[in-house]
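A student in our group prepared the protein record below, which I am reviewing. I have pasted the whole thing underneath without changing anything:
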Amino acid sequence: QVQLVESGGELVQPGGSLRLSCVASGFTFSNSVMLWYRQAPGKEREWVGTIGADGDLANYADSVKGRFTMSRDHGKNSFDLQMNNLKPEDTAVYFCSALSPHLCGHGTQVTVSS
């Protein structure tokens, strides 16, 4: 089955860290550019970052640059998002997405609150 499945979202305090994981199946993960998006309640979906197929090029939204880091493991078909120094405004549903094939997961909820 061709799919992306995210996990790792939970409630965390401001300043805390969290690692999200996205596991790909049913397609050649190592050939695809991967992205993270997020959507906060009542807001438009926001791009978080993009990583190249071989993991050597990554770009981040200004709102997360310096705090979030993407990585990918082709042996495990996984694509992770390490989030540090979390802020309440990072609260959102986080989605991973593949460019080829064009896919998006169902998302995982991250809540940053004291």
Remarks:
- The chain has a mean pLDDT of 96.
- The chain is about 0% helix and 50% strand.
- The longest strand covers residues 18-25.
- The radius of gyration is 13 Å.
